[in-house]
Fold this protein.
Amino acid sequence: MGAIVHTHSVYATAFAVAGSPIPAITEEIAQVIGGSVDHAPYAACGTAELGKLAVKWLGNKQAVLLAKHGLVGVGRDLKEALLSCIITEKTAQIAAIAQMLGGYRELGPYEIRDLRDNYLNKYGQ
């Protein structure tokens, strides 16, 4: 991890307020984030407790929701950390719309693993 970006983007924050993870429903989120985006339990903003919870719930992924607050995206550099936030927000929008249209099917663990591996080790120009 070389960079961190924090946002209050509307759809991701809505998932954080609802206490719902953002599901792994797009190839992009599997590739860049490493799967669904979980949410850390609530802690007051600006506290060490919030930071500890965010790191714990981030795990080996590149984004985590902060309960009742917003989104944190990380990456190897600032560009990738921002990309983590953009893809998380886009996937949150898609999930919300897909739910209104009747639902969605999440990617399976093997699909996520293969997409993530390809992104980290093979993808690029």
Observations:
- Strands lie at 3-7, 39-40, 63-66, 70-75.
